[in-house]
Amino acid sequence: MRPLLAVSNAIDLLNEKIGYVCNLLVLLSCLVSAANAMIRYAFSYSSNGWLEMQWYMFAILVMFGASYTFKRNEHVRVEIFYLLLSERGQLLLDLIGTLFFLIPACLLLAYLSWPFFMQAYDVGEMSGNAGGLIRWPIKFVIPAGFVLLALQGISEVIKRIAALQGYVTIDAKYERPTQ
Question: Where do transmembrane segments lie in this chain (predicted)?
Answer without folding.
Answer: 20-41, 53-70, 91-114, 134-151
